[in-house]
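User: Quick sanity check before I run a bigger batch. Here is a single chain. Can you write out its predicted 3D structure?
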Amino acid sequence: MTPLPLPSEPPALFKDLLVEPEEARSILRPQKDERYGFGFALSPYRGCGHGCRYCYVREYPNALHKPEDWGGWVSPKLNAPELLWSQRHKLHQARVFMASATDPYQPLERQYRLSRRCLEVLLLCPTTEVIVHTRSPLVLQDLDLLKAFGDRLTVGLSIPTDDDTVRQVVEPHAPAIPSRWAAAERLAAAGIQVTIGVAPLLAVHDARAFARRAKSSGAANAWVGGLRLLKQDPFYKLLADHGWLKVLDPDYKDGIRTAFLDAFPSRKRKREARTEPVAAPAPAMARQPGLFDRVS
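Assistant: Done. Predicted structure follows.
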């Protein structure tokens, strides 16, 4: 893999965002997830320009930035693709989630292209499954690359509300909800498996219409996730001020989830099924590239 030149400028402002490029020491974080069961989380950036006001990553230890600074800084991991290439032997028959602590298609990706270059490495790992999770239609700039993965890649689009006026309050720097629906439709039309992530669940205007909209986008799947608040989180006051505390009520979440299960009945049947699984024949194993294999 031939490294490509990358920007290496010192901290600078990018549209009011403090950009602090860095050389990372590691790129794959072992992680177990109740829903996905994935093996590794991969984050090409530290920090996120979307700056969603509820994001739990605000609490991560950081010597340079306070939680209230979240959304005002990003550190591109300049050596992320090279690190991933050197560690690809770990990914045999593994699942990679990109990304858990940042949005891989935040605005800086237009300039740094780190997510794309990491995906190019993962494409060369034929036994590795990939989940790309974003709230940005910028993912469409890599449509051809995503299609090349075939059925071992899924794109998750975060659409936590059906009301863009809610989004404007809680995700003021993230793409508008209609643009996310358009991205879901284009991805699905291109044959890419799409999952709608209603997470973290925010205020919803019409749950059943929301679920039907998700289904009509061409998404193969959808799920509803709760909101994770920090200790003494100022976001609680924002919810209270707007009359949105209902999103913390388990019954409210269950109601939204029921609407989505009704819209995606195949998922409901799978949950209710009690029959024993039928063993499928073992697929032919593809060999993961070795560390010293020559790749053209």
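The first strand starts at residue 12 and ends at 14.

User: Great, the batch can go ahead then.
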